[in-house]
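Milestone 3.1: sequence recovery, worked example.
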């Protein structure tokens, strides 16, 4: 199922970042065909997510760690940022809000990730919390939401718990809830939303 839905998930990553690209255009790029009218940056971003998903599938049995998350970002943000696959060393801002993510400390971030993974939450909740934590933590110079989306799906796929994908029809509401979460650090509402509208699995 992960292999079947990866094009939709890659498109989800593009829309989360506000890229002006359609699902058919995403599929065309993934099929190795040139798409006139798209920027080279958009094409690069799709190909980066493709390679990140290939890495995820090939490494699905590897343990999740900070180094693994950095590897995901190395694929996601390749040639898009000041640096990729490494924690940022300077300040970043998020447009439209007062929240300023702190510069990440590797030991602190590793402990936060360990706490999420070792908690008594269900696997699905761990995946959702990891996604939201990574998106707000802004550990990297670029590609934080896409990297966190991959991290969540690594947790889900490894345990046979489905796929996390925000579809086009739910993207506006997701963005509103994400902004509220960034501002308050209260993930209760967006967690419920993601569980109800963004998790898909296999129906028996």
């Amino acid at each position: 199922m992960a292999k079947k839905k990866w094009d939709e998930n890659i498109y989800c990553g593009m829309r989360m970042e506000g890229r002006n690209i359609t699902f058919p255009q995403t599929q065309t790029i993934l099929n190795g065909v040139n798409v006139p009218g798209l920027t080279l940056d958009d094409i690069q971003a799709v190909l980066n997510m493709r390679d990140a998903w290939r890495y995820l599938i090939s490494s699905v049995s590897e343990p999740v760690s900070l180094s693994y998350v950095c590897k995901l970002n190395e694929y996601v943000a390749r040639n898009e940022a000041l640096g990729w696959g490494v924690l940022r060393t300077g300040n970043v801002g998020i447009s439209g809000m007062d929240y300023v993510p702190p510069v990440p400390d590797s030991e602190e971030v590793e402990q936060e990730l360990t706490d999420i993974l070792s908690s008594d939450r269900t696997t699905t909740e761990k995946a959702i919390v990891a996604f939201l934590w990574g998106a707000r933590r802004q550990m990297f110079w670029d590609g934080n939401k896409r990297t966190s989306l991959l991290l969540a799906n690594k947790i889900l796929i490894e345990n046979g718990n489905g796929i996390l994908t925000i579809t086009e029809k739910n993207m506006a509401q997701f963005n509103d809830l994400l902004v509220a979460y960034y501002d308050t650090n209260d993930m209760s509402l967006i967690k419920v939303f993601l569980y109800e509208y963004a998790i898909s699995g296999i129906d028996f």
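Residues 40-58 form the longest helix (19 residues). The chain has a mean pLDDT of 93.
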